[in-house]
Amino acid sequence: MNRNPEHQSAELKYLEQLHKLDAYVRKVADRLTELWEQDDIARLKYITQKLEIVNSFLDDETPMYLDGPIKREDVSRLQDASGFIRGIVAVSESELFESNDTFFDMLAERFYGSVLLTDTTYNIVAAQDGTLYVKIEGIPDDLDLE
């Protein structure tokens, strides 16, 4: 089968990432076994807690937007049949207390780049080292304004 070079390049990158992930999982498994054998319960518990956070993201197909909002050109592709978009954003605990009434607006801006989301819901899916990971979903209300 003749594939275009762009598709082959994307497939190669995917396979490389899959290989790296496989190696990482093996390394984590080896480390957990080592800690178990050393009876290092404190470290074992710590690593297990970290893995539970990672697992909470893997169990859900919700994308993460930790480095900026959804790109406008991607919104229609990411909307479900009801028009909802969803994602996970990170926010520091200090921002929670500093922003008072504007906290949800800040989350919407961080996720979507606008506060114009309707039927919006927020759920904290994880908390780690002073950072909250919040799942946000809503319907963009400003797409026809552009």
Order of helices and strands: HHHEHHEE
The main sheet orders its strands as 1-3-2
Q: What class do helices, strands and sheet pairing give?
A: alpha+beta
Strand content: 15-25%
| Alpha carbon gyration radius | 19 Å
Q: What is the CATH third-level topology name of the largest domain? A: Alpha-Beta Plaits
Task: Give the termini separation.
Answer: 41 Å
**Number of individual domains:** 2
Give your account of this protein's structure.
By secondary structure, the protein is of the alpha+beta class. The chain folds into 2 domains: 5-58; 72-145, Alpha-Beta Plaits. The protein is 49% helix and 21% strand. The protein contains 5 helices and 3 strands. It has helices at 5-37, 41-58, 75-78, 93-99, 103-112, and strands at 85-92, 117-128, 131-140. A 3-stranded antiparallel sheet has the order 1-3-2, sandwiched between helices. The radius of gyration is 19 Å and the shape is flat. 8% of the residues are buried. The mean pLDDT is 78.
Q: Summed up, what is this model?
A:
By secondary structure, the protein is of the alpha+beta class.
Keywords:
5 helices, Alpha-Beta Plaits, three-stranded antiparallel beta sheet, 146 residues, alpha+beta, 21% strand, flat, single chain, 2 domains
Write the layout of secondary structure elements.
Elements lengths: L4 H33 L3 H18 L16 H4 L6 E8 H7 L3 H10 L4 E12 L2 E10 L6
Antiparallel strand pairs: 1-3, 2-3
